[in-house]
Amino acid sequence: MRLRVVEGALKDELLTTLRSRETPHWLFREALERLGLILIAEALKELKVERVKVKTPVAEGLSGKVVQEVVFIAVLRAGLSLIPPALNLYPKGRIGFMGIYRNEETLEPVAYYKKYPLVKGAKYLLLDPMLATGGTARYCIGELLKRGVPPQDIVFVSVVSAPEGIERLKEFERLTLITASVDERLNDRGYIVPGLGDAGDRFCGTDDAEVIEGYGVQSS
Ligand code: URA
Fold first, then answer.
1. Which of 68, 119, 127, 180 is most buried by a 10 A CB count?
2. Would residue 130 count as lying in a domain?
């Protein structure tokens, strides 16, 4: 696996906003979207490019044109947050979804929703802000490999990664993992430490929603 940790002043500041428990959901969402732009730009750097002639107002020159299809797959729920920056950067991209939960008895990942296009030769970006145990990530990568997507065309994009999750992805030698931070560890509830909490809840605004007489957060 190729691991690329994106560095920079802007990344640092956006991560601080995301980590802070004081950040309300709308600012969390905005910071996630902006950091997503940085990460996804990194992931798209190696798209196949063709040299084309271009006439500028001054002369004719040679320039680049992307000739590879791109499929963005949001790992539900939190991965939805990275779709807007992905499409801002690359409007021609196609979109898919993978929804996975963990069977609490077997601890195995189970897919409850899968819908994504299979496009020959495309670059596949799996979008999930948190790489924690690596169970969901392995499932999603395995799913694409089973369908014939070559590992070198799969990029896993996460905002914060746990060393435990990274370790579990090492079996995929030609996969690329792009992240903004490798944190310390997982705690005994599977949260990344220091992390940023539950990314899905904070993005959706369901972390601090008040439950009033049966209203509030419903998850069935
Ligand atoms: N998923 C999250 O949203 N946060 C974590 O810390 C781990 C998994």
1. 127
2. yes
Residue closest by Cα to atom 2 of ligand 1? 198
Does residue 56 sit within a domain?
Answer: no
Q: Is residue 38 part of a domain?
A: yes
- State the total domains in the chain: 1
Q: What's the CATH number where 151 sits?
A: 3.40.50.2020
Residue 130 CB less than 6 A away from ligand 1? yes
Q: Which atom of ligand 1 is nearest to the CA of 196?
A: 6
Residues labelled catalytic: 102, 106, 198, 201
Chain segment 87-137, per-residue pLDDT in tens: 999 999 999 999 998 887 777 889 999 999 999 999 999 999 999 999 999
Q: Is the pTM of this model over 0.90?
A: yes
Q: Which domain does 129 fall in, by range?
A: 2-45+72-204
